[in-house]
Amino acid sequence: MSRRLVLASQSPARLALLRQAGLAPEVVVSGVDESAVTAPRVPELVALLATAKARAVAEQTDDALVLGADSLLEFRGEPLGKPADAAEARLRWLRMGGRCGTLHTGQAVLDVRDGGIAARDVAVSSTVVHFATPTPEELEAYLGSGEPLHVAGAFTLDGLGAPFVRRVEGDPSGVVGLSLPLLRTQLARLGVRLTDLWVR
User: Matching NCBIfam families, A to Z (predicted)?
Assistant: First the structure.
C-alpha cells in the first residue's frame, strides 16, 4: 500500500535522486539549527542531524514516511560541510587535491502514524572519494561557478565538480546526497517496499 513520503531536506540533489528513483516526495524544510548538534565522530553526527531534521518535520504531520538526511565530508578526521565562502573552498581543494576523504550521509526514516512516530530506522552511508588535482585555472573556474559553496565538502559528483573526482569506493548516490540502496533497505526494515512508493 502506498504511503505519503515527505523529504525533510531542501537539497535539490536529494529531491532529484528520489524522483529519478520513481518517487514523488513532498518537501518540508526542517529548520533545524545544525550548529547545535554535536557528536564525537562524523558518522554519528550525520545520523543525529538526519534524525533531528526528520523528527522536526514528523511533528508537523499525522501520517507519512518522513525522510531526513545530512551529509558531511570527513577529511583527515575533520567534518567538512558547506564552505563559508570561495576562499575557504579554495583552501579545501588545495588540501584535498590528489587525496581522498570519506563522504558520510546519515539517513533517518520515521514512520508517522496517528500523529506519533510508530517506528524509525537510522543508518549511515559512507563512501571513499578520491579527488583529482585541478589546475589553478580549473580550480578558479570551478570556484567562480559558485557550485562548491552550496554542497558538503565543496564538491559534487553530479555536477560541475564530477571531472575532479577520480573515483569512489562505495555508493555514488550516497555521495550525491542520499543512498538509494540504503533507503530501500531502511524502508524494508519498516515493512515498506520501495516499489510500492513508485509514482504510477
Answer: maf (TIGR00172)
